[in-house]
Design a protein that fits this description.
The chain is mostly helical and 223 residues long. The protein contains 12 helices and no strands.
């Protein structure tokens, strides 16, 4: 998926393949973790109105989702799992109240050990997908051409681009008399899904290395 694409149909197609892409990775527990993150966790957070928050257990499970869908960094999971319950509740309450100010909301969460802007973005996206997209490597690469910078400054630039893209897609949908909404989090999932699809197709079309080895062995024998 080209980030500059403005065709709502292509974005919806990429987004609709998200679940299949998650399943295609064949990673232990990813399907159930993704269901927890996208469907169960938002409801749990919203049930705690008027002062919503996230628990340490939920943050730990969110971290497992993030690391399983992306790159596995076990030390981050250890840090988050050992956080004090009251600290997580207080930080997340302050963060949610700070929205839509993403800079302040992210900063409120990154005081927690093991929680950087990327993990903070996942927490915020679970609560406010219409404001805060998750900072995935695949979406970062697609819209900024770089997925190595996990700073707050980079996240704010990334979020701004995905917010603008979501509005752009909605505008084109309205022009085509299609009223479906599209959030920044939808944009992230569509970009992630598209990137995983490209990787899967590349791996399927790659030649079998064992065949090359056998062919190479035969040539040596001829000489």
């Amino acid at each position: 998926m080209d980030f500059e694409c403005s065709n709502p149909s292509l974005w919806r197609e990429a987004l609709s393949s998200y679940q299949a892409r998650v399943e295609s990775l064949n990673k232990p527990d990813l399907v159930s973790l993704d269901d927890f993150y996208r469907n169960e966790l938002p409801s749990l957070i919203y049930q705690r109105n008027p002062n919503p928050y996230i628990t340490t257990t939920e943050l730990s499970k969110l971290m497992r989702w993030k690391l399983t869908r992306g790159k596995w960094r076990p030390r981050l999971l250890d840090f988050v799992s050992s956080l004090d319950e009251s600290s997580v509740e207080s930080a997340s309450q302050k963060a949610f109240k700070s929205l839509p100010d993403l800079k302040k909301a992210t900063s409120e969460l990154t005081v927690l050990k093991g929680v950087g802007p990327a993990t903070a973005s996942a927490v915020l996206a679970a609560y406010a997908p219409d404001v805060a997209p998750f900072m995935s490597d695949e979406a970062m690469e697609a819209c900024l051409g770089n997925c190595k910078d996990y700073s707050l400054k980079q996240y704010l630039l990334y979020a701004d681009k995905l917010q603008a893209k979501a509005k752009n897609i909605i505008l084109f949908q309205e022009l085509a008399y299609e009223g479906n909404s599209f959030t920044p989090s939808n944009v992230e999932r569509a970009l992630w899904s598209s990137a995983i699809g490209v990787k899967l197709r590349a791996s399927e079309s790659a030649p079998d290395p064992d065949i090359k080895t056998r062919k190479g062995t035969k040539r040596k024998r001829k000489h």
